[in-house]
Structure formats: C-alpha cells, structure tokens
Amino acid sequence: MSTPLVPHFIAGEWIRPAGLATTPVYNPSTGDVIAECPVGGATEVNAAVTAAHAAFADWRETPAVDRARVFFRYRQLVEQNFDRICATVSREHGKTLAEARGSAFRGLENIEYACGVPSLLFGDTLENLARGVDCETFLQPLGVCVGITPFNFPAMVPLWMYPLAIACGNTFVLKPSEKVPLTAVLLGELLEQAGLPKGVFNIVHGGRDCVDALLTHPQVRAVSFVGSSPVAKYIYETGTRNGKRVQANGGAKNYIVIMPDADIPKTVEALSTAAFGCAGERCMAGSTAITVGAAAERLLPSLVDAARKIRVGPTDRPAQPDMGPVISALHRDRILDLVATGEREGAKVIADGRGVKVTDAPRGFYLGATIVDGVQQNMTLAREEVFGPVLNVMRMDDLDRAIEITNASAFGNGAAIFTNSGKAAREFKHRVKAGMVGINVGVPATMAMFPFTGWDDSFYGDLHIQGREAVQFYTQQKVVTTRWFGDGVGDVWKK
Ligand code: NAD
Questions:
Q1: Same domain, 74 and 99
Q2: Which atom belonging to ligand 1 lies closest to the Cα atom of 251?
Q3: Residue 297: is it exposed, middle or buried by C-beta count within 10 angstroms (0-12/13-18/19+)?
Q4: CA–CA distance from 306 to each of 74, 75, 106, 266, 369 (Å)?
Q5: Is 182 helix (H, G, I), strand (E, B) or coil?
C-alpha cells in the first residue's frame, strides 16, 4: 500500500499535488512513515491567499452572531470527533492519549472563546464628546491572516489562532508543521463540515519557501507564529519588514525554584509532570529545577525515584505508557548530544534514561526520563532549550540567587516557585522576569481567556496569542466622531 499524500486545502478544495517534492511524516512510536507531506511554495501560497482574499469581502460582512454560530457547530463537531483527533495527535506526534486529550481540550476552549465573539467585538462610545458630538469605536477585521505552527501541539496551537481570527471576520491560511500535518487536515475537514464558506480557511503545507511566500505576499495582513526562537525572530523581522502585523512565540527555558519549605511529595509530582510530560516537548516544560538550601536533599531522592518509574513506550495502541517518544530520531540524537555535553562540562547524570529499550517498538524514537545534577550557569545545558525529557538541577543558597539565575536567561516564557511561604512567593512573582508565573503550579500555561505572555526571546511582537490581546491582534480599531447639523432633512421630526 502506498503512503498517503497529505492534501492542501485551498478555496474549499482538497488538493493532492502529484509528482512534486514531499517530506515524510513519521509515527514516532514505531519509526514508520505514515504519510507524505507536500512541500508547497509560492504557487500554493498564492492560490490560498488569493482565495482567502476573495472570501474576505463577504465574510467580513457576515454578522458576528452568524460567524459565531459556525464555531458553535465546530465546537460540537470537534467534541464528537475528539477521540479521532487525539488518536491522530498521538499517532503523528507521539503524545500519550491522556496528553493528547489534555492539550486538544485546551484547543477546544479556544473555539469556545471564539463563540463569544459578538461580545468580544464591542467598541466604546462617548456621548457629547463636545456639544452635539458623539464618538464611538469599532473593531474591524484585518483581512487575510496567517498561522505558522510547530510540531509539538498539532491541535492546540493551530486552535489558538484560526478560530478567533476567523470569528473576528478575517480569513485565514494555516501552514502547519510539516512533521504533524494530519491533525491540521482533520481539524480543517471538521471546519468545512461546520459550514464555513469556501476560501475563509485554507491550509498549505511546506517549509521555508512556503513560509517566505506567506511573509512577503502583499495580501497577507497579519502573521501568528509559534515555534523556535531563531525562526520566531526571523518571522517577526521579515513579516514586519513586509508590512505585516506579527506575533511570534519562540522557545523557552523555564526555571522552577524549590524552597526548603516546599511540600515535597506534591512538588515531586508537579515537577515530574512539568519536566517529563509530553516527553519534555513543551514550551512551558519545567526544564531546570533550582533547589534552594536544604531543598535539594529533601527533593532529589524522591524525584530520581519518580523519574526511574516513568514507563516509556508506544502511544499508538490501547495499553498506554506514562511517556511516549520524541518527535524524530534526529531530535533524539540532539538531546543525547546535549546531555553528553553537560557531562563533559562537569554535570552529573543522576537519573539516566538514555539507554531505554522499548522491545515492542524497537525503531521508535525513545528516551527515558533523565535528570542532570550540578548544572552551572555557564554550561550549554543551562542555556539551550533541550526540548526533551531532561531536567537540569541547579543548587543555590538563597532565593535571591535563584531569582538572579532565572532572570539571566535569554528566554522569558514561564517560571515557577514551590513554597509554603507567602513572602517568598510574593518576592518571586514580583521580581521574576518571565511572562507566565506559577506558584505551586509547575506548568503555568494560560487558558483561552488569558494571553500567552512570553517575554524576551520567547516572544517577538506586541500583542500576544489568546484572550483580549488576541482580539486586538486580529482587528483594527476605527474611531468615528459624529455631529449632525440642525438644518438638514433630519429636522422633519421637529414639525
Ligand atoms: P520550528 O521553529 O522548527 O518550526 C515552527 C514552524 O516554522 C514550522 O511550521 C516550520 O515549518 C517553520 N520553519 C522551520 N524552520 C523555518 C525557517 N528556517 N524559516 C521559515 N519557517 C521555518 O519549531 P518546532 O521544532 O516545530 O517546534 C518546537 C519549538 O516551538 C520549540 O522551540 C518550542 O519551545 C516552541 N514552541 C513555543 C511555544 C510558545 O508558545 N512560546 C509553544 C509551542 C512550541
């Protein structure tokens, strides 16, 4: 049986381009190629943007309540097909079904948020700005918006973007990660079934050429990006240079500070989930634990024990492991290299998942939970995003130094503290340089109604994804000032 070709979705048609270049889509649990993703370029982008631009004329005139109704139907379809969506996420990404469900649910909440668009688009009014003069604001859509998404959340991250953008009256072109295009296609089929007019939502697949064509297309007005920091910076600079509004979420290195008074069993549970959940492939993964004072002795034995108990295995079958594979053999080897570099630079591996064997799926891309102790600020492991099931441990004497280390990071996505001291927590939340902060919460990722507020190298732009900031991102404000003269035909009401 030949490997299926993933279709583009352009102007309401599913298009399978024959004879052009493709990239393989893997099932990371088995190492098998499960599909071929077409490498689209300027031709496909031009067709998709042209379709989206043409569809905008009518879609922007469609009342907000009618646009919202499409998303009420979409919500229901996504819920009805939830198991299929999560199985697809597991199959092409390698998340466990529980992780796929959790993240897809975060995506579903973004559809629910978009259903409230009539109220989200309210403007302001002021009567008698001057005598007889009134002022009002409207939020109007921009036009064609673009979403470029990473491999690590095949359902959630695209759902951060297009439901709200489209509900606000824009049309959309999604360029999903070429590593996980199948979930995007399934979500697109459901949106089509929900009754969205042709051309309002489009999908093009590809890599850099495709992205460049989107960033430079004159009819594209706004670009939402999620991915690694170097690419985020490139997208921001290229997009803004070409006159686009851009929000670009980048990578991360998130620190979790553990104070000596922390509740150890609860901290171990939260820290293992933060570090090893989704095999560490999360921009909000807690990748470095900073223990303060005696916290190290209290925490590390149970933490190592918990890491060793994590069962690694294939996620594409009924018996579920605790942790699935990483996305590719290349990525696994990069993680192995980073851990080896850490050892060379003087750190010590205290839980070693590198030799993990998965006998029923020997060609899968597996790594076990790994903890590296004695990491110092100048080491490669302390600086680079590993994006795998590897937790660094740094030991500090006091909270001031822990905050100093956290704040020295080039990234600024998330940070967390585990403590029973209100004073320590208050100090941390006030001084820490990160956009999303957890207090006794290991993964303080925000839900649909709050913005996803990365700072520094974790975000390039002004208005973040999700929540009210996203409504602002996907709309432009118009202020109308009105005065009526007294001698016009309108004066008939006086007679
Ligand atoms: P990536 O940057 O390699 O790819 C992201 C997207 O950009 C993909 O669609 C890809 O096709 C495209 N792309 C890749 N290289 C490109 C280039 N040179 N020019 C133009 N486009 C290019 O990221 P990834 O490996 O798919 O995802 C993992 C990264 O995403 C991690 O760094 C992670 O922290 C980050 N991430 C961030 C957030 C956040 O909200 N801050 C959320 C999820 C993931």
A1: yes
A2: 34
A3: exposed
A4: 40, 37, 27, 12, 9
A5: helix
Give pTM, 2 decimals. 0.97
What digits encode the pLDDT tens for the residues 157-189?
Answer: 999 999 999 999 999 999 999 999 999 999 999
For residue 417, is it within any domain?
yes
Residues 287 and 229 in one domain: no
DSSP string, 112-131: HHHHTHHHHT---EEEEEET
Q: In terms of domains, do 246 and 334 share one?
A: no
Instruction: For residue 257, give the nearest of 456, 434, 428, 458 by alpha carbon.
Output: 428
- For the stretch 410-457, pLDDT in tens is 999 999 999 999 999 999 999 999 999 999 999 999 999 999 999 999
Residues 152 and 172 in one domain: yes
Where in the sequence is the domain holding 308, given as residue range(s)? 254-439
Return all residues near 331 (Cβ < 8 A) that are at least 6 apart: 365, 387, 388
Q: Between helices 181-193 and 82-93, what is the axis angle to 10°?
A: 160
Same domain flag for 320 and 217: no
* DSSP-H helix ranges across 217-323: 229-241, 264-276, 295-309
In a domain, 470, yes or no: yes
> For residue 490, is it within any domain?
no
87 plus 154 within the same structural domain: yes
- The domain that contains 340 carries what CATH number? 3.40.309.10
Split into its structural domains, the chain has a count of 2
Mutate-to-test residue for ligand 1 from 173, 226, 443, highest number of ligand atoms within 8 A of CB: 226
Q: Which of 283, 331, 384, 409 to mutate to test the pocket of ligand 1 (most atoms within 8 A of CB)?
A: 283
Q: Which helix (H) or strand (E) holds 78?
A: helix 64-80
| DSSP code per residue over 49-73 | HHHHHHHHHHHTTS-HHHHHHHHHH
**Using CA atoms, how far apart are residues 83 and 101, in angstroms rounded to an integer?**
8
Residues facing residue 305 across a β-bridge: none
Average pLDDT of the chain?
97
State how beta strands 32-38 and 22-27 pair: antiparallel
* Ligand 1 lining (C-beta closer than 6 Å): 148-153, 157, 175, 177-178, 207-208, 211, 226-228, 231, 234, 249-252, 283, 385, 387, 413, 452, 454, 458
Residues 235 and 301 in one domain: no
pLDDT digits (tens, 9 = 90+) for 286-305: 999 999 999 999 999 999 99
Report the C-alpha gap between 246 and 223 in whole angstroms.
5
Q: Which residues contact 179 (CB under 8 A, 6 or more apart)?
A: 25, 26, 92, 93, 151, 327, 328
User: Is residue 46, in this structure, part of any structural domain at all?
Assistant: yes
Pairwise CA distance, residues 183 & 160, whole Å: 14
Q: What is the CATH number of the domain that holds 66?
A: 3.40.605.10
Residue 60 sits in the same domain as residue 186: yes
List, by residue number, the catalytic residues: 283
pLDDT band at 494 (very low <50, low <70, confident <90, very high): low
State the DSSP string of 352-377: --TT---TTSTTS-----EEEES--T
